[in-house]
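A note from the maintainers: we've had questions about how concatenated examples are separated. There is no special marker in the raw files; a new sequence line simply starts the next protein. For clarity in this README we add a label.
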Amino acid sequence: MAEAGLLYKNQVMLLTQTFFIKDNRNELLLGAHKYDFDILFFDQMSDFVMAVQSSESNNLFVIDLDVLYNMQDDMQHNRRQTMFLSDLLQRLPADKNYIYLQTVRQGERFLLQQKLVDSNCQAYAEKPITNDVLVDKLFNIFAQNKRGESNTVVYLGDKPMLDVDLLAANQIELLHYQDGRSLHVRVKEVQPDVVLIEEAQYLQTEALVRVLKKNIEFDPGREIILLQNSLNPALARRALDSGFDEILTPNDADVLTRQLLNRINKIRASKDLISRDRATGLLNKVGLQKKAQEWIRRATREDKPLAYGIIDIDKFKTINDTWGHYFGDIVIKRLSLVLSAQLGERDLLSRFGGEEFVVVFWDSTLEQGKQKLDAMREAFGKIAFEVKLREHKNFSFSGGVADFPACKTENEMFLRADAMLYLAKQGGRNQVCISGK
C-alpha cells in the first residue's frame, strides 16, 4: 500500500490485484497528482475495509471486480479462493459508496449491474479504460462532490407549486415574482438559471419569452419553462414557437420540484465545462467574470462591500525552470487548496490563468480584504515543498486588492488590483498592496 502523499488533500483508495492496474501504477499516480488527489493501492480485503472505515467522507473508494476471481482471502488463513460478489458487498462498510471497475464481459450482465447499483454504487466503469480517462472521471466525481454551487430560480405566477425546503437543501434560491411586464428587468438583475412561468401569465403577455431572449445580456444556458395547467397541444406548440425551452404540468409539487432539480443539475454540469479550470476545479477566467458581475449586483441590492484580490506566485518561471513544469503544477494545486481552505461561504476563487489567482471576498472592505489575503499568503509561505529527497523549499506569492463600491465594475476592480499587484512585485514580492498602503 502506498503512503499518503502530504501534498494532496483528497485520496482514492483502490482495491486491486491484477496486472492491468499494477503495471500502470506509476502512470496512474502521475495523472492523479496532477489533478491533486492521491491513490492508495490495496491488495488485501481486510486492509481495504479498515482503511475505508477510518477514511474521510470526501475520499473515493474504487474496487476492481477482478479481485473476485483472484482474492487471497486473509480471513481464511491466507487461502486463495474465488469470492462471490455478495460476499464482497457484505464485507464493505455500508455507510460508504463505491466505484467499481469491471471487464466488458462483466458489464454485459444486467443482473450484475443491477446488483451493483442497488448496493451503494457511486459509479462503475468498464475495463480496459485508459489511465487518463479513469483519472479524469475520478476528478469529475471529486468536483461534483465539492461543488457546493448555488442556483437561482425565478417563478412568475400567483403561488409557487414547489417544495421550497427541498430546493434550499440543494442550494437553490427561489424568487417569487408576479409582474410579467417587468420580468425582463428582474431576470437581468438576478441572472437566474431557470425561469418558471405560469400559463395564466403567458396568456396575459405572450411576448414574455421573446422579450427575455432578445436582450443582448441573456444567458443562452438559462432555461425558460412554461407551467401548463393541463395538456393543450395547440397552446403548447404556440409556447414552444415563442421561445419556451420546456413545458411541464405542475400536478404535484414534489414531482415538479424533482424535475426542476434534475434540470438544474444538468445546467450545473454544463456550466462546469465552460466555467471551471480542469486542473484545480476552481472557476476559470470566464466563470469568475460572470460570478463577479453577479456578486456586484447582489452587493448593490444588499448594500455590501466587496474586496477583489489578485494573487501571483513569486518567481514561478524559476520554479518551472529549476524543478520542472510537473512540480510547478503541484505548487499551483497546493496553493489552490490553501486559498480554498480560508474562503467564506460566499467568497469566490478563480484560477485566472497560469500561476495567477483571483479571490473575491463578500462583505469585506479594502482593508479587510488585505488582511484576509495576507493570512492566505502567510499560510502558503509555511508549506515546505520537497523539491528533492530530503530537500525542502518554501515559496511565496504577491497580491493586490481593490474594492467595490470604490470601483464600480468587475473590470475596474481587476485593473486596480492588478496595478496594486505590480507595486507588490516591484516592492520586493511576498506582500499584499492596496491603494495608499
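[label: protein 2]
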Amino acid sequence: MNAQMKHPARAKDYGPLPLNGLRVLDFTIGGAGPFATKAMADYGAEVIKIESRTHPDFPRTMGPYAGGIKDPDRSGYFTNRNSGKLSLTLNLKKPEAIAIIKRLVPSCDVVTNNFRAGVLERLGVGYDTLSQLRHDLIYMAMPLQGSGGPQGTYSGVGHTLNVLSGLYGVTGYDDGVLVGPGTNYPDHSVNPGHGLVALMGALIHRRRTGLGQYIEVAQLESTMNLLGPSIVGYSMTRKNPRVMGNESEDFFPYGLFSCANDRWLAISIRQDEQWQALCRLAASEPFSRDASFAGNAGRLAGKARLKPMLMAWTRRHDAFELMKQLQENGVPAGVVQNARDLVEHDEQIAARENFVTVEHPVMGPVVYNGSPSRLSRTPARIACAPLLGEHTDYVLKNMLGMNDGEIAGLREAGVLE
C-alpha cells in the first residue's frame, strides 16, 4: 500500500505505528476475528472490513445501542471490536464484487476470515485462488473446529465453543448446576490472541524468506488451552476435576461472600496468619473465637458451619470498605466489579488511562478499551469504528482508481449493497 495515503478512519495523523504500511482485507465477523484485526488497526495497519447491508456483521444487530435506538451504526459491541477500520460493502454473490476483491488482493498483505470452512472457497476467494494474485500473501482462516475432521464444516459462535471446549464443564457449583463463564469468553481473549501471534509469526517469516502462507486457527483447539490444568490432570489421574463454583478444594475461606447493597467480595485465605487477621477484624463474631477454625484443615472440615457465619458477617458491611480493611491487614480480598466500577471508579485503571473516549459521528462520545499492550516508542492509537459502508467510495476510488460513473453503475447493479 501507499504508506503516505491518509487513513480516513483516523481523525488525525498519529505518526508512525508498528504496522503502518500493512494492508489487511478483513472478512471476519462476530467477536474473535474482528478483535484480532482490530488490534492490527490499533497498531497502524490499514484494515478493510468487507461488509454487507443484507447480511451485516451480526454484532451490528446486537446491543447495547447508543440511546436505545436499534441501528447498525449504534451498536456498542460492534464499535468496540472494530476500531480504526475501513468499511467496504459488497454483495459477494455478485461476480463484480468478487472481481473487486481480486483487484484489491495484490495490494493486500493479509486476508482474514472466520467463516465456516469452505465458504470463501465456494465464493472464489479462498487461499488457493488469492495466493495466485500475490505470491507472498498471508491468509488466516479461523474455522470453528478447523477445516478437517468429521465436524470441520460445522459452524458456531463463542457460546458454542464454551460448551465444546469443556469450559461449561468447569464453571458450575458443587450441586451439579452448570452456569458457564457468563460471556462468549473465547471471542474476547484466547482466540484473537492466538490468531495475532500466528499472523505476526507469518509476517516475520515472510520478511526473512519472501514467502507467504496459509494459517488455520481452529478456534476449538485454541479455546481448549483454557482447560490446560484440567486436561493434564485427567491425563495423569483419569479423573475429571470437581466442579466447585468459586471455592477451592485446598483452602477455606476461599470464594465469594455477599455484602450490603447486593455487592460481592472475594476472599481467599491460604495462610493461617491471614485467618487470624480476619478474626481480629471480626473480633465480636463467634467464629473468631472458635478454636476448631484456627487451622486450615479445621476450616475445611467445618466449612458447612463456618460459611454461613462468615456470610452473616460480610452482609453487614459495605463491600469496598470491608475490602480495604481486609487488604490493609494482609488478607487477600477484592470486590467483584461491574462495568460502572471499571469505567467510573477504579483508581488503578484510571491511573493507567486505559479507557479512551473517541467521538463517533452517530453515537457521540464512545468509551473504548485501550490496548493492554504498551509499546514505549509506538503506542497503539484507538480510532473510531466505521459506519456501515462508510469507506466504500474511498476504497474504490483511491485504491482501485474507479471513477464516479463506474461506482454509480456498481451501486445501481446491487454490487455495493
